[in-house]
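User: Quick sanity check before I run a bigger batch. Here is a single chain. Can you write out its predicted 3D structure?
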Amino acid sequence: MPRTRSSSNINGLSESDLDLSALQAKSQASVLWLMSKAFEGRGIPDELREPFYRDSSGQERLKALIVQSLANAELYGLALGNIYQDNHYNTMSHNEVIHLLMRKGIYIQDPRETAITESVLMQTSPIKMVSTFTCLSCLIFLADDCHL
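Assistant: Done. Predicted structure follows.
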């Protein structure tokens, strides 16, 4: 089935291509932001500097170490510890992160307006990317709010 072209076609890219590129760019920026916050003042460890790789089909994927660090809430806790300058946050679980966001008036829901739970954020096979990036967006919003 041939691809349809729209009037917003730019250099041979369809809207879906542009949407995918924008989503990938946002995903990369969100993960890199989280890494920079989690390892602020110490530098990102070498094995985590490039959080994405391309699989054999050319699709961009998160490295297993990053997926695991997201699934066990380690990166979220480290980032919150640096945002609030308090090591107490370093060992937070997903539930504690979700409740912290709620106490700050940030309700974490996926685009279908379904609440995101700890069990969803803990999944690694496959990782729930929409839920993960929704959580990252909420943390970025929280950090921005803290620095105002």
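The helical segments are 15-38, 64-71, 74-83, 94-103, 118-122, 129-146.

User: Great, the batch can go ahead then.
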